[in-house]
TrEMBL record:
Short name of one Pfam family: NrnB_C
Organism: Siminovitchia acidinfaciens
Stated name of the protein: Oligoribonuclease
PANTHER family from the UniProt entry: 3',5'-CYCLIC-NUCLEOTIDE PHOSPHODIESTERASE, OLIGORIBONUCLEASE NRNB
Stored InterPro entries: DHH_sf, NrnB_C, Nucleotide_metab_enz
Domain Oligoribonuclease NrnB C-terminal residue range list: 323-392
Amino acid sequence: MYKLLTHNDLDGVGCGILAKLAFRKDVKVRYSSGAGLAREVEWFFENDDRDTFLFITDLSVNEENEERLQTFHEAGGKVRLLDHHKTALHFNDYEWGQVKVEDDEGKLTSATSLFYKYLVDHNLLEPTEVVAEFVELVRQYDTWEWEKNGNHQAHRLNALFFLVSIEEFEEKMIGRLKTSAHFDFDEFEKKILDMDEHKMDRYIRRKKHELVQTQVGGLFAGVVYAESYHSELGNELGKEYPHLDYIAILNMGGKRMGFRTIHDHVDVSEVAGHFGGGGHAKAAGCSLNEEAYRQFVVETFHIEPLREDAKRNRYNLKHSLFGSLYKNSKEEVFLLYPLNETDWAIDHYNNRLDKTFSSFDEAEVFLKRNYGVWLVRDETFVNYLMEEVKASRGSE
Ligand SMILES: [Mn+2]
């Protein structure tokens, strides 16, 4: 008998699907969140047969269970923990731990890709093209490589995963992986995936207007409340507001929070680690403990949301040699302009700030972080110029 304890996200369920393909009726699969794993491991030790081969994928055990697994292993028990989270690398100290963030060719791994390799290497699963394609889609989604590669199939696989129950998803996928030559969605799925994509776009657009910015532990965070589409939301908000180091997504009902960044200079698994959580450099999470609640909820509740930069301007443009006009919620006005060949300056009304900047982007980040500004629409820009002209005439 085999037992698999795995994560309840696409990558975790991908492992469940592979286990059922490999072991058929001889495997029991249990899906859980990170927090639910401890109970599952305890249940295994209390109730399951000692000969059962235990796999744990895409999740980390706590210290107590880490010791129990080692004792179990020393007593001849069969156990493997396969994971790709950086915060789980210490499990490699055990014979039963196999944690790899990158494969031998330097490609980012996922639990599903590691488990597939394990099963194939141990002759427990016959490799086929369709299964390999499915595994690669899961890997690209989980590592977010799909975006760079423009692989929307991977993104859509995750969308389908959220549209149906885990059981239904398993059943659909297992059927497809057993009978198809190549992986694809059927016509009905394609239709609902299109509808879901539109729904998600509208959701994200709304959330763009709810984001507040705050400074936590020396980094600038964008804080938003959301229950759905966390990865997509974190990515879109990160791109909309690149002056923020990361996006913190609060799920109040679940008392959890997620961290996402699009930047290479930030490691959000460290941020999450500060609050007792973990994850990857670009995506991590933690429970909403008291400290996190204070920093991200209490301290930010009164803050006005950020506003998006005007997008359809013809005159008030970024990098413009005539200057770019910004405003904040206190109605303060800032003009960012090139001072000379090398420096950019900022006027706050008609007073130049002491600081100068070596690039437009650097100056804009400064403005956005310290004054919460957005690029105003052409109309406001033109009014500003007219006032300037009037004022200069008055002073003649
Ligand atoms: Mn994963």
